[in-house]
C-alpha cells in the first residue's frame, strides 16, 4: 500500500518529522504519534518512502530517512507557499518592522499561537536579506486579536504584515524561539522560501548551507 502524494498536507507531517531529526529511527507507532497522523496513513507514507528509496529499515525494523537532502529537495520543489496557504494582507501603521517583531513577544503572554516565516523568519535564524514585511502563520479563529495586537488594517494592495492561515497545522511542529520570537523550524522555513519570489531561493539555499547542513 502506498500514498499518491507524500507531500500532501497530512503526509507531509511525516516527512517533516523525518527531516527535522534525520538521524533518528522510528517505529511506525511512535512516528504516527509524533506526526499526529493515523497509524494506517503513517504506514502507507513510510511504505511509499521505502519504495522511493528515501527511507530505509534498520536492523531493529524501525525506519529512518535514507537521503535527507534528496527528500528535502523534492519537497521544496513541490511546495508553493502562496498556493497552498491562505495569505491575508494587512498594513500596520507602525512601519518599523523591528518594532513589530518585538511586539510579537507579547503574543505568547496572550496565548496566541504563531510562527514567523519567509524573509523575516530567515533574518532571525540565518540573516541573508533585510525583510520588507512580516509573514506569520496564525490560527484563523484568533485573527481579530492579531488585528488589535499589531494595529492592522486590511490592505487592498501591498501590505507589510501578512497573517497566514496554514495549509496544515504541521507548520507549527518544532517551531524555534529566537530573541523571544517564535519562528518555524528550519525545514519549514526552507520549503516556504524555496519557491517564493523576492530572493526566496537565495535565502533558502543560504539557510540550508548555514543552518540545515544537508
Task: Give the secondary structure arrangement, pairings included.
Layout: H1 11-20, H2 28-35, H3 39-52, E1 55-57, E2 63-65, H4 68-78, H5 81-84, E3 86-92, H6 97-103, H7 105-109, E4 114-117, H8 118-125, E5 134-138, H9 143-150, E6 152-154, E7 161-165, E8 176-178, E9 181-183, H10 186-194, H11 200-212
Parallel strand pairs: 5-7
Antiparallel strand pairs: 1-2, 3-6, 3-7, 4-5, 8-9
Report a brief summary of the structure.
This protein is an alpha+beta fold and 214 residues long.
User: Mind telling me the CATH class of the largest domain?
Assistant: Alpha Beta
Unreliable runs, pLDDT <50, ≥5 residues? none
> Termini separation (Å)?
29 Å
Count the DSSP helices: 11
DSSP strand tally: 9
| CATH architecture heading of the largest domain | 2-Layer Sandwich
What is the helix fraction of residues, given as a range?
A: 40-55%
How are strands sequenced across the largest beta sheet?
4-5-7-3-6
The major β-sheet equals: 5 strands, mixed
Write down the Rg.
Answer: 18 Å
CATH topology of the largest domain: Beta Polymerase, domain 2
Instruction: Determine the strand fraction and express it as a percent band.
Output: 15-25%
Shape call: elongated
Count of domains: 2
Helix-strand string: HHHEEHHEHHEHEHEEEEHH
Structural class: alpha+beta
Average residue pLDDT? 95
Could you explain how this protein is built, in words?
With 214 residues, this protein is of the alpha+beta class. The chain has 2 domains: 11-78, Arc Repressor Mutant, subunit A (Orthogonal Bundle), CATH 1.10.10.10; 81-212, Beta Polymerase, domain 2. Helices cover 45% and strands 17% of the residues. It contains 11 helices and 9 strands. The protein has helices at residues 11-20, 28-35, 39-52, 68-78, 81-84, 97-103, 105-109, 118-125, 143-150, 186-194, 200-212; strands spanning 55-57, 63-65, 86-92, 114-117, 134-138, 152-154, 161-165, 176-178, 181-183. A 5-stranded mixed sheet has the order 4-5-7-3-6. It has a two-stranded antiparallel ribbon with strand order 1-2. Strands 8-9 form a two-stranded antiparallel ribbon. Strand 1 (55-57) and strand 2 (63-65) form a beta hairpin. Helix 1 (11-20) crosses helix 2, helix 2 crosses helix 3 and helix 10 (186-194) runs antiparallel to helix 11. The longest helix has 14 residues, at 39-52. The chain is elongated and about 60 Å long. It starts with 10 loop residues before the first helix and ends with a helix. The model has no long low-confidence stretch (mean pLDDT 95).
Amino acid at each position: 500500500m502506498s500514498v499518491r502524494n507524500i507531500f500532501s498536507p497530512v503526509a507531509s507531517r511525516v516527512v517533516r518529522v523525518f527531516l527535522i531529526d534525520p538521524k533518528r529511527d522510528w517505529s511506525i507507532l511512535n512516528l504516527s504519534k509524533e506526526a499526529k497522523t493515523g497509524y494506517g496513513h503513517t504506514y502507507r507514507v513510510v511504505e511509499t518512502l521505502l519504495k522511493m528509496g528515501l527511507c530505509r529499515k534498520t536492523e531493529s525494523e524501525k525506519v529512518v530517512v535514507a537521503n535527507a537532502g534528496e527528500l528535502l529537495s523534492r519537497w521544496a520543489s513541490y511546495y508553493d507557499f502562496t498556493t497552498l496557504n491562505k495569505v491575508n494582507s494587512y498594513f500596520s501603521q507602525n512601519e518599523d518592522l523591528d518594532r513589530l517583531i518585538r511586539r510579537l513577544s507579547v503574543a505568547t503572554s496572550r496565548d496566541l499561537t504563531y510562527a514567523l516565516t519567509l524573509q523575516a523568519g530567515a533574518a532571525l535564524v540565518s540573516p541573508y536579506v533585510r525583510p520588507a514585511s512580516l509573514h506569520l502563520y496564525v490560527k484563523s479563529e484568533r485573527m481579530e486579536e492579531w488585528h488589535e495586537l499589531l494595529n492592522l488594517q486590511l490592505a487592498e494592495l501591498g501590505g507589510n504584515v501578512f497573517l497566514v492561515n496554514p495549509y496544515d497545522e504541521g507548520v507549527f511542529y518544532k517551531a524555534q524561539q529566537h530573541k523571544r520570537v517564535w519562528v518555524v523550524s528550519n525545514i519549514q522555513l526552507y520549503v516556504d522560501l524555496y519557491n517564493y519570489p523576492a530572493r526566496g531561493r537565495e535565502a533558502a539555499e543560504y539557510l540550508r548551507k548555514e543552518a540545515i547542513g544537508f
